[in-house]
Amino acid sequence: MKKINKKKIFFVSITFLITLCLLFYFIFSYYSTPxxxxxxxxxNKKNTSYPTVSFVAVGDNIIHENVYQYALKQGNDTTYxxxxxxxxxxxxxxxxxxxxxxxxxxxxxxxxxxxxxxNFNSPESLIDxxxxxxxxxxxxxxxxxxxxxxxxxxxxxxxxxxxxxILFSGLYENQEDRQTxxxxxxxxxxxSLLAYTFGVNETTNYKxxxxxxxxxxxxxxxxxxxxxxEDVNNAKAQSDVVIVAVHWGKEGHSELSDLQQEYAHYxxxxxxxxxxxxxxxxxxxxxxxxxxxxIYSLGNFLSTMKDVYNQLEGMVCFDFVKKEDEISIENIQYxxxxxxxxxxxxxxxxxxxYTSTLASQHSILKDQADIIKEFKNYVxxxxxxxxxxxxx
Length: 392
Known about the structure:
The chain is 33% helix and 24% strand. By secondary structure, the chain is α/β, with parallel strands linked by helices. The strands form two sheets. Strands 1, 2, 3, 4, 11, 12, 13, 14 and 15 form a nine-stranded mixed β-sheet that branches.
């Protein structure tokens, strides 16, 4: 019996010692391991529990003469090939369910002649190349919409309508077309796109253009509160999310104009979900007014404009997440871009990938010391929201 008791005592002692050692080990490991700060990488954060649609938007696609001449060279002087212009940022665009761009210049048909500034007409093949890049939402109500008059605008509206995979808004063939809300569905969420401009350019035949717009007001989306209210109400009845593209502000000014602030609050009061501004050719702030995300200006996208800060551009990405009957905007990310060109190339880079070597080859930036650092500081100053991640 004594031997048995000794064995029991031995095994109990061993078990106790092992348990004690393990206890000390876990306590020591816990308190000796520093607590790592919590980092949220919004770009990679995906909510798979709810229907989600990823969205990306860029600024003004302006086909200056140097742009289409470069595209012609890329097409061996027989066709216009714009794909190389967008190849460096295609990975960003094509990765999203919905990709928006503002087509600043008219695409009225090659029969009108391909033209640059001031009265633009861009090649029809541009549409295919935009689609190849991944764009499927396009607005084109701009100050250049009437560059070639009413018939050219209507022709452009007709050409875009042939591309049924692209949700196009801003130019219209007739009254019935104007009253048709543009809607697209992705992952069980329905989106509508409305587009407006403050007006058109005062060209040499401005009086004639104004007369045409007065006679046929339905061909172009213009800022008119009564009409906008009707459009938004119709869009709400047909979609879950209402996106408005608006041509506003002052060219070359980063400060918000009175018109921008007035209409931003008006869109918010109407319950628009997202407002995407264009026209200033410079990046401007982003803010939330009530539940409306207002992106005042993303600057240019593709162009050969000549001011230093015309080369700094914005791309914004986020997710629409549907939870029961509510849709929220989550994971907002801002990706600064650089419009890069010289005599041999016209293309776009993310600021993160842009190098001092490339800057030294840029027609405009080559003489700007520390321009990359300057651009980064400017972006931080302009996009100062705590809930927006900036990738640069």
